[in-house]
């Protein structure tokens, strides 16, 4: 494991954290950022290192490579981590398609069914290499870049779900990852895809506190002040829709409370008790505006994906649909068209039997050579 080269895409909070963490765990890590964003990671590119602080300890991670050359970044990498917002998955599929080689694995962190969008995307852009595409059901930790080239990790998750498309490839990927990130392998990407907390908590937390968020400009504790019993009741209704989709797909999904507890974010109780008893969440301020990723990512690339699959299997999702419609009005765009819909996931026009075969074996009627 210590001789493995991995690549981490992007220069945001999660990319800094994972690149530094894996380096300090003994892997050779290549970090890539697009040339147009190079100024934001100028210090990392110049020093080829990232400083780490927080609950994981203090240290300086000397990267194998920090570059704006994507071909150089992914060359020889056994695993490529895409730790980016949902809107970046499609563009990165196009960017990486010419350079991916057989035997490489791409892991979307966190996924929210992003693995489906990525796999369909690289096929659409001409990649025919035998690449395993996987996703995790959340981030290994919560982190923030606190200064140029310095990241603070303030929460570490004990375990994560992991799946691949095709699902039959998860044992091989799990074997590569388990020594650095404890993961629970799942049969298909639907399990981690529907097992992600942020689309459950963030959109309604923001939409039902929209006035306060805009007035406070970030001087607002969404979990401590905004997650009132009435707001949480609506979130619980959305959670029931998510669980109903899982049931229709034959997946026993964890409840919102179970996901919170398993992630180490709160105590056992009702969802309101769990959220309000969370020492790590209730201390967080923000978001500063409705332009936050809590809205702009978790609605089009979270709730749209969930509701679209719900529609495919015949489960009504009025709460999800309402959040998407209100979010679309706030953002001034049609999230159903621009977000992670069935077409972008490669599921448009498939019946349930075809979807199940694709998820398990990778066989897709639109991918026949």
Helix and strand arrangement:
Blueprint: E1 5-9, H1 13-24, E2 28-32, H2 42-47, E3 49-54, E4 59-62, E5 65-67, H3 70-74, E6 79-82, H4 89-96, E7 105-108, H5 114-124, E8 132-136, E9 141-147, E10 150-156, E11 160-165, H6 170-177, E12 183-185, H7 190-193, H8 198-207, H9 210-216, H10 222-226, H11 229-248, H12 256-262, H13 271-276, H14 279-282, H15 293-296, H16 299-313, H17 318-331, H18 335-338, H19 352-361
Parallel strand pairs: 1-2, 1-6, 2-5, 3-10, 6-7, 7-8, 11-12
Antiparallel strand pairs: 3-4, 8-11, 9-10
What this model shows, in words?
- By secondary structure, the protein is an alpha/beta fold.
- The protein has two domains: 5-193, Rossmann fold (3-Layer(aba) Sandwich), CATH 3.40.50.720; 198-338, N-(1-d-carboxylethyl)-l-norvaline Dehydrogenase, domain 2, CATH 1.10.1040.10.
- The chain has 19 helices and twelve strands.
- It has helices at 13-24, 42-47, 70-74, 89-96, 114-124, 170-177, 190-193, 198-207, 210-216, 222-226, 229-248, 256-262, 271-276, 279-282, 293-296, 299-313, 318-331, 335-338, 352-361, and strands at residues 5-9, 28-32, 49-54, 59-62, 65-67, 79-82, 105-108, 132-136, 141-147, 150-156, 160-165, 183-185.
- The chain has an eight-stranded mixed beta sheet, with helices on both faces. A four-stranded mixed beta sheet has the order 4-3-10-9.
- Strand 9 (141-147) and strand 10 (150-156) form a beta hairpin.
- The two termini are 35 Å apart.
- The mean pLDDT is 94.
């Amino acid at each position: 494991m210590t001789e493995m080269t991995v690549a981490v895409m992007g220069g945001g909070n999660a990319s800094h954290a994972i690149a530094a963490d894996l380096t300090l765990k003994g892997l050779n890590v290549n970090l890539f950022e697009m040339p147009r964003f190079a100024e934001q990671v100028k210090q990392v590119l110049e020093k080829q290192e990232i400083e780490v602080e927080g609950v994981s300890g203090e240290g300086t991670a000397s990267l194998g490579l920090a570059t704006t050359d994507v071909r150089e970044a992914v060359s020889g990498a056994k695993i490529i981590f895409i730790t980016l917002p949902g809107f970046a998955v499609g563009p990165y599929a196009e960017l990486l398609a010419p350079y991916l080689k057989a035997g490489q694995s791409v892991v979307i962190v966190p996924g929210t069914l992003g693995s489906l969008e990525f796999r369909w995307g690289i096929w659409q852009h001409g990649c025919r290499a035998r690449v395993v595409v996987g996703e995790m059901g959340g981030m290994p930790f919560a982190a923030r870049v606190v200064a140029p080239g310095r990241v603070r990790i303030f929460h570490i998750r004990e375990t994560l779900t992991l799946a691949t498309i095709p699902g039959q490839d998860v044992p091989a990927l799990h074997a590569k990852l388990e020594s650095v990130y404890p993961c629970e392998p799942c049969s298909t990407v639907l399990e981690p895809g529907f097992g992600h907390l942020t689309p459950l908590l963030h959109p309604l937390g923001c939409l039902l506190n929209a006035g306060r968020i805009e007035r406070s400009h970030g001087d607002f504790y969404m979990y401590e002040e905004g997650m009132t019993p009435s707001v949480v009741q609506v979130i619980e209704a959305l959670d029931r829709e998510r669980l109903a989709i899982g049931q229709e797909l034959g997946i026993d999904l964890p409840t919102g409370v179970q996901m919170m507890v398993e992630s180490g974010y709160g105590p056992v109780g009702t969802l309101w008790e769990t959220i309000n008893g969370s020492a790590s969440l209730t201390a967080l301020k923000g978001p500063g505006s409705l332009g936050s990723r809590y809205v702009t990512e978790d609605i089009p690339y979270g709730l749209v994906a969930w509701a679209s699959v719900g529609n495919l299997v015949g489960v009504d999702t009025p709460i999800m649909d309402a959040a998407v419609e209100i979010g679309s009005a706030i953002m001034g765009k049609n999230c159903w068209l621009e977000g992670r819909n069935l077409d972008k996931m490669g599921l448009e026009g498939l019946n349930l039997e075809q979807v199940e075969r694709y998820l398990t074996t990778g066989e897709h009627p639109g991918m026949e050579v």
